[in-house]
Amino acid sequence: MDYTERSYRQHHRQEDLVHFQVAVEETDLDIGVRKERFSPELVEWVAETIRVCRKPLEDYVTKNPDFVSALKPYPVLPEAPEIVRRMSEAGRLAGVGPMAAVAGAVAEWVGKSIAKRSRDVIVENGGDIFMRSSRIRKVGIFAGSSPLSSRIAIEVRPNQTPLGICTSSGKVGHSLSFGKADAVVVLSPSVPLADAVATATGNLVQTPNDLEHAIEFASQIQGVTGVLVIKNDRLALWGNVKLLPISF
């Protein structure tokens, strides 16, 4: 896969939505909205929404550089910005540093903002998705060189949304992982939590023999509603996860 072109984005795009990309600094989002809601003005508004989302995080990081480098839970003061507190709490629950939740936190912030303008919205940020939908959706799973890659999809029903669908991989992408999973997908109403737990779960997978332990770990975290782990030609899942084959 050519990661720089983010070809994995085809796995979550929906035919009934208009998808467009907005990039601000390091944030590069793929966004889907209802066709009647799309406009050039919306694109400009989303870019400004991203800037508003990033500003308090950037200001906090400038004053607290250890927040970025922490690989373990990093407590913050109650008066910290909301996005910082949500990242810190997600990291605490998952047992990882708060930056493991940053992509999910931004996707959720922007997604909830757009949801005020479009009943259906999908925001993808580096493999981490915020979704709100009025219809059944299918989200394909990219799992690198695994023979299961692009062969299965997760079905998401409207009553499951808003939902975070976050993916971590020890083989694909630029995010830090200490494991070798082809794909770990975590579902949660909290996108930052799904992001952090996907990272923590992926860290546990070195061989296919680690799947059961990884699933058990993720399933014990309050707020997680589903987990899928893929290593080579094997997969394990738990919770509210319905898999469907992808036909060609």
TrEMBL record:
Stored InterPro entries: ApbE-like_sf, UPF0280
Name this protein carries in UniProt: ApbE family lipoprotein
